[in-house]
Amino acid sequence: MARGIFLDGAGEDAVLLLHGLTGLPAEMHPLGKRLHRAGCTVYAPLIAGHGAGNRLLLTTRWTDWLASAQIAYDQLARDHRRIHVAGICLGAMLAVALAERRDVARIAAYGPTFRYDGWSMPRIAGNRPLILALAGLPVVRSIGIDEHAPNGLKDEKRRAFVVAAQQRANGGPVDSFPLGAIRQLYLLANHVDRIAPRVRVPTLICHAREDDISSIANAHRLRARLGGETRLDIFEDSYHLIHLDREMPELAAATAAFFDLPRAQHHERPEARLAVMDYSRV
Fold first, then answer.
1. Of 22, 88, 159, 205, which shows the fewest CB atoms inside 10 Å?
2. β-pairing, 5-7 with 41-44?
3. CA quadruple 274, 250, 108, 90: dihedral positive or negative?
Protein backbone atom coordinates (compact mmCIF):
# COMPACT_ATOMS: atom_id res chain seq x y z
CA MET A 1 0.00 0.00 0.00
CA ALA A 2 1.13 3.53 -0.75
CA ARG A 3 2.50 5.71 2.06
CA GLY A 4 2.30 9.35 2.93
CA ILE A 5 5.09 11.82 2.19
CA PHE A 6 6.73 13.94 4.90
CA LEU A 7 9.34 16.63 4.26
CA ASP A 8 10.62 18.11 7.51
CA GLY A 9 11.45 21.79 7.49
CA ALA A 10 12.59 24.45 9.91
CA GLY A 11 10.28 27.17 11.13
CA GLU A 12 6.68 27.52 12.21
CA ASP A 13 4.95 26.92 8.87
CA ALA A 14 3.59 23.60 7.66
CA VAL A 15 1.62 22.73 4.53
CA LEU A 16 -0.82 19.83 4.45
CA LEU A 17 -1.20 18.52 0.89
CA LEU A 18 -4.31 16.46 0.05
CA HIS A 19 -4.46 14.28 -3.06
CA GLY A 20 -7.43 13.66 -5.33
CA LEU A 21 -10.03 10.91 -5.64
CA THR A 22 -8.32 7.60 -6.59
CA GLY A 23 -5.01 9.51 -6.26
CA LEU A 24 -1.96 8.98 -4.07
CA PRO A 25 0.36 11.09 -1.89
CA ALA A 26 3.12 10.60 -4.49
CA GLU A 27 1.25 12.87 -6.90
CA MET A 28 1.78 15.75 -4.44
CA HIS A 29 5.54 15.18 -4.17
CA PRO A 30 6.79 17.49 -7.00
CA LEU A 31 4.70 20.37 -5.65
CA GLY A 32 5.63 19.47 -2.10
CA LYS A 33 9.36 19.66 -2.83
CA ARG A 34 9.00 23.20 -4.18
CA LEU A 35 6.96 24.32 -1.17
CA HIS A 36 9.50 22.69 1.13
CA ARG A 37 12.28 24.70 -0.51
CA ALA A 38 10.22 27.83 0.15
CA GLY A 39 10.68 27.20 3.88
CA CYS A 40 8.11 24.90 5.46
CA THR A 41 7.33 21.36 6.56
CA VAL A 42 5.20 19.43 4.06
CA TYR A 43 2.97 16.45 4.77
CA ALA A 44 0.93 14.59 2.15
CA PRO A 45 -1.01 11.81 3.90
CA LEU A 46 -2.73 8.83 2.32
CA ILE A 47 -6.46 9.49 2.47
CA ALA A 48 -8.57 6.64 3.83
CA GLY A 49 -9.56 4.01 1.27
CA HIS A 50 -6.88 4.96 -1.25
CA GLY A 51 -3.75 3.19 -2.40
CA ALA A 52 -5.08 -0.35 -2.90
CA GLY A 53 -7.69 -0.22 -5.64
CA ASN A 54 -11.38 0.55 -5.94
CA ARG A 55 -12.60 -2.28 -3.74
CA LEU A 56 -10.97 -0.69 -0.70
CA LEU A 57 -12.08 2.78 -1.77
CA LEU A 58 -15.71 1.66 -1.77
CA THR A 59 -15.50 0.66 1.90
CA THR A 60 -15.05 4.32 2.91
CA ARG A 61 -17.25 7.41 3.10
CA TRP A 62 -16.49 11.10 2.76
CA THR A 63 -16.45 11.40 6.55
CA ASP A 64 -13.56 8.89 6.62
CA TRP A 65 -11.68 11.00 4.08
CA LEU A 66 -12.20 14.12 6.18
CA ALA A 67 -11.09 12.23 9.30
CA SER A 68 -7.80 11.43 7.51
CA ALA A 69 -7.25 15.14 6.89
CA GLN A 70 -8.09 15.99 10.50
CA ILE A 71 -5.64 13.41 11.87
CA ALA A 72 -2.90 14.71 9.58
CA TYR A 73 -3.60 18.31 10.63
CA ASP A 74 -3.48 17.37 14.31
CA GLN A 75 -0.11 15.69 13.80
CA LEU A 76 1.32 18.84 12.22
CA ALA A 77 -0.24 21.06 14.90
CA ARG A 78 1.93 19.50 17.59
CA ASP A 79 5.05 21.21 16.21
CA HIS A 80 3.89 24.07 13.97
CA ARG A 81 2.13 27.32 14.66
CA ARG A 82 0.75 28.01 11.18
CA ILE A 83 -0.75 25.22 9.10
CA HIS A 84 -1.85 25.84 5.53
CA VAL A 85 -3.85 23.30 3.53
CA ALA A 86 -3.73 22.70 -0.22
CA GLY A 87 -5.49 20.02 -2.21
CA ILE A 88 -6.50 18.91 -5.68
CA CYS A 89 -10.08 17.99 -6.63
CA LEU A 90 -11.29 15.89 -3.65
CA GLY A 91 -8.38 17.35 -1.68
CA ALA A 92 -9.57 20.89 -2.42
CA MET A 93 -13.01 20.08 -1.05
CA LEU A 94 -11.50 18.43 2.03
CA ALA A 95 -9.33 21.52 2.60
CA VAL A 96 -12.43 23.73 2.86
CA ALA A 97 -14.26 21.23 5.08
CA LEU A 98 -11.21 20.95 7.33
CA ALA A 99 -10.97 24.72 7.72
CA GLU A 100 -14.43 24.73 9.28
CA ARG A 101 -13.19 22.33 11.99
CA ARG A 102 -9.57 23.35 12.51
CA ASP A 103 -7.54 26.57 12.72
CA VAL A 104 -6.22 26.62 9.16
CA ALA A 105 -4.05 29.62 8.26
CA ARG A 106 -4.68 29.68 4.49
CA ILE A 107 -6.15 27.40 1.82
CA ALA A 108 -5.09 26.65 -1.75
CA ALA A 109 -7.88 24.83 -3.61
CA TYR A 110 -6.76 23.34 -6.93
CA GLY A 111 -9.48 22.22 -9.33
CA PRO A 112 -12.28 22.10 -6.72
CA THR A 113 -14.96 19.68 -7.82
CA PHE A 114 -18.66 19.97 -7.07
CA ARG A 115 -19.45 18.10 -10.29
CA TYR A 116 -17.46 16.00 -12.76
CA ASP A 117 -18.57 18.17 -15.67
CA GLY A 118 -15.32 18.60 -17.60
CA TRP A 119 -15.21 18.19 -21.37
CA SER A 120 -13.71 14.67 -21.26
CA MET A 121 -16.21 13.24 -18.76
CA PRO A 122 -19.35 11.32 -19.74
CA ARG A 123 -22.57 13.16 -19.03
CA ILE A 124 -23.65 10.72 -16.33
CA ALA A 125 -20.60 11.62 -14.21
CA GLY A 126 -21.84 15.18 -13.79
CA ASN A 127 -25.45 14.22 -13.04
CA ARG A 128 -25.36 14.84 -9.30
CA PRO A 129 -29.05 14.17 -8.57
CA LEU A 130 -28.96 10.82 -10.37
CA ILE A 131 -25.73 9.67 -8.74
CA LEU A 132 -26.84 10.78 -5.29
CA ALA A 133 -30.13 8.91 -5.74
CA LEU A 134 -28.85 5.64 -7.23
CA ALA A 135 -25.11 5.18 -6.64
CA GLY A 136 -25.62 4.08 -3.04
CA LEU A 137 -27.31 0.90 -4.24
CA PRO A 138 -25.09 -2.22 -4.09
CA VAL A 139 -25.68 -3.10 -7.75
CA VAL A 140 -24.75 0.43 -8.88
CA ARG A 141 -22.00 1.66 -6.56
CA SER A 142 -19.20 -0.50 -8.01
CA ILE A 143 -19.90 0.49 -11.63
CA GLY A 144 -16.97 2.53 -12.86
CA ILE A 145 -16.68 5.63 -15.01
CA ASP A 146 -13.71 4.83 -17.22
CA GLU A 147 -10.70 7.10 -16.89
CA HIS A 148 -9.07 7.74 -20.25
CA ALA A 149 -6.77 10.15 -22.04
CA PRO A 150 -5.99 12.91 -21.39
CA ASN A 151 -6.22 11.72 -17.73
CA GLY A 152 -6.17 15.28 -16.44
CA LEU A 153 -2.82 16.11 -18.05
CA LYS A 154 -2.18 18.20 -21.14
CA ASP A 155 1.51 17.27 -21.34
CA GLU A 156 1.72 13.84 -22.98
CA LYS A 157 5.10 12.87 -21.51
CA ARG A 158 3.98 13.74 -18.00
CA ARG A 159 0.72 11.86 -18.61
CA ALA A 160 2.51 8.64 -19.53
CA PHE A 161 4.84 8.92 -16.54
CA VAL A 162 2.06 9.67 -14.04
CA VAL A 163 -0.23 6.87 -15.26
CA ALA A 164 2.62 4.33 -15.08
CA ALA A 165 3.67 5.51 -11.61
CA GLN A 166 0.10 5.30 -10.31
CA GLN A 167 -0.27 1.76 -11.64
CA ARG A 168 2.98 0.70 -9.95
CA ALA A 169 1.97 2.23 -6.64
CA ASN A 170 -1.48 0.62 -6.69
CA GLY A 171 -0.19 -2.78 -7.79
CA GLY A 172 -2.18 -2.53 -11.02
CA PRO A 173 -4.30 -0.14 -13.05
CA VAL A 174 -6.85 2.12 -11.39
CA ASP A 175 -8.67 3.04 -14.57
CA SER A 176 -12.11 4.06 -13.35
CA PHE A 177 -13.98 6.21 -10.86
CA PRO A 178 -16.55 3.97 -9.11
CA LEU A 179 -19.98 5.57 -8.94
CA GLY A 180 -20.13 4.87 -5.21
CA ALA A 181 -17.00 6.96 -4.65
CA ILE A 182 -18.32 9.75 -6.88
CA ARG A 183 -21.48 9.72 -4.78
CA GLN A 184 -19.38 10.20 -1.64
CA LEU A 185 -17.57 13.13 -3.28
CA TYR A 186 -20.95 14.68 -4.11
CA LEU A 187 -22.10 14.22 -0.51
CA LEU A 188 -18.91 16.03 0.55
CA ALA A 189 -19.71 18.74 -2.00
CA ASN A 190 -23.15 19.16 -0.42
CA HIS A 191 -21.43 19.54 2.95
CA VAL A 192 -19.02 22.14 1.57
CA ASP A 193 -21.94 24.05 0.07
CA ARG A 194 -23.51 24.24 3.52
CA ILE A 195 -20.46 25.20 5.57
CA ALA A 196 -18.48 27.35 3.11
CA PRO A 197 -20.10 30.65 4.17
CA ARG A 198 -18.69 30.03 7.66
CA VAL A 199 -15.17 29.48 6.29
CA ARG A 200 -13.45 32.87 6.41
CA VAL A 201 -9.93 31.59 5.81
CA PRO A 202 -8.12 33.41 2.96
CA THR A 203 -8.33 31.07 -0.03
CA LEU A 204 -6.43 30.82 -3.30
CA ILE A 205 -8.50 28.99 -5.92
CA CYS A 206 -6.57 27.68 -8.92
CA HIS A 207 -8.28 26.16 -11.94
CA ALA A 208 -7.36 25.28 -15.51
CA ARG A 209 -9.42 27.13 -18.06
CA GLU A 210 -9.57 23.92 -20.15
CA ASP A 211 -10.08 21.54 -17.22
CA ASP A 212 -11.08 18.17 -18.68
CA ILE A 213 -12.47 16.72 -15.42
CA SER A 214 -14.30 19.57 -13.68
CA SER A 215 -15.23 22.74 -15.51
CA ILE A 216 -14.19 26.17 -14.34
CA ALA A 217 -17.76 26.70 -13.12
CA ASN A 218 -16.71 24.70 -10.04
CA ALA A 219 -14.12 27.35 -9.15
CA HIS A 220 -16.69 30.13 -9.47
CA ARG A 221 -19.12 28.18 -7.31
CA LEU A 222 -16.58 27.75 -4.51
CA ARG A 223 -15.55 31.39 -4.70
CA ALA A 224 -19.17 32.52 -4.45
CA ARG A 225 -19.85 30.29 -1.43
CA LEU A 226 -16.81 31.05 0.72
CA GLY A 227 -17.24 33.62 3.49
CA GLY A 228 -13.75 35.12 3.42
CA GLU A 229 -11.15 36.66 1.13
CA THR A 230 -10.62 34.71 -2.11
CA ARG A 231 -8.35 34.94 -5.12
CA LEU A 232 -8.90 33.05 -8.37
CA ASP A 233 -5.97 32.19 -10.66
CA ILE A 234 -6.73 30.72 -14.09
CA PHE A 235 -4.14 28.47 -15.73
CA GLU A 236 -4.00 28.52 -19.51
CA ASP A 237 -1.70 25.60 -20.40
CA SER A 238 -2.86 22.77 -18.14
CA TYR A 239 -5.74 20.39 -17.66
CA HIS A 240 -7.27 19.22 -14.37
CA LEU A 241 -4.09 18.06 -12.62
CA ILE A 242 -2.49 21.49 -12.53
CA HIS A 243 -0.20 20.36 -9.70
CA LEU A 244 1.46 17.92 -12.13
CA ASP A 245 0.99 19.54 -15.53
CA ARG A 246 3.03 22.10 -17.47
CA GLU A 247 2.33 25.00 -15.10
CA MET A 248 3.21 23.22 -11.87
CA PRO A 249 6.19 25.56 -11.18
CA GLU A 250 3.91 28.60 -11.51
CA LEU A 251 1.31 26.93 -9.27
CA ALA A 252 3.96 26.21 -6.63
CA ALA A 253 5.25 29.80 -6.74
CA ALA A 254 1.74 31.25 -6.46
CA THR A 255 0.94 28.95 -3.53
CA ALA A 256 4.17 29.70 -1.66
CA ALA A 257 3.61 33.45 -2.07
CA PHE A 258 -0.05 33.23 -1.01
CA PHE A 259 0.95 31.23 2.08
CA ASP A 260 3.68 33.83 2.72
CA LEU A 261 6.30 31.13 3.21
CA PRO A 262 9.71 32.39 4.41
CA ARG A 263 11.59 31.88 1.13
CA ALA A 264 8.69 32.46 -1.27
CA GLN A 265 9.23 34.64 -4.32
CA HIS A 266 6.56 37.34 -4.09
CA HIS A 267 5.70 38.15 -7.67
CA GLU A 268 2.42 37.71 -9.50
CA ARG A 269 2.00 35.93 -12.84
CA PRO A 270 0.74 38.56 -15.32
CA GLU A 271 -1.60 36.05 -16.97
CA ALA A 272 -3.02 35.09 -13.57
CA ARG A 273 -3.64 38.73 -12.73
CA LEU A 274 -5.54 39.25 -16.00
CA ALA A 275 -7.53 36.06 -15.44
CA VAL A 276 -8.57 37.19 -11.99
CA MET A 277 -9.71 40.52 -13.40
CA ASP A 278 -11.71 38.81 -16.14
CA TYR A 279 -13.41 36.29 -13.92
CA SER A 280 -14.17 38.58 -11.00
CA ARG A 281 -16.90 40.09 -13.22
CA VAL A 282 -18.60 36.76 -13.98
1. 159
2. antiparallel
3. positive
Amino acid at 58: L
Q: Which long-range contacts (CB under 8 A, 24 or more apart) does 26-29 make?
A: 26/2, 26/165, 26/166, 26/169, 27/88, 27/162, 27/166, 27/241, 27/243, 27/244, 28/88, 28/243, 29/5
Q: Which residue(s) pair with 205 in the sheet?
A: 109, 232
How many alpha carbons lie under 13 Å from residue 275 in its C-beta half-sphere? 20
- Helices then strands, each counted (H, E), the chain: 11, 9
Q: Which residues of 50-72 are buried (b: 16+ CB within 10 A; e: fewer)?
A: bbbbbeebbebbbeebbebbeeb
With a threshold of 0.85, does the pTM exceed it? Answer: yes
Contacts of 266 (CB under 8 A, 6+ apart): 257
**Is the alpha carbon torsion for 27, 43, 197, 256 positive or negative?**
negative
How do residues 79-101 score in pLDDT, each as one tens digit? 999 999 999 999 999 999 999 99
16: confidence class by pLDDT, cuts 50, 70, 90: very high
Which CATH class name applies to 5-279?
Answer: alpha beta
pLDDT tens per residue, range 171-208: 554 567 899 999 999 999 999 999 999 999 999 999 99
DSSP letter at 47 equals P
Strand partners, 7: 42
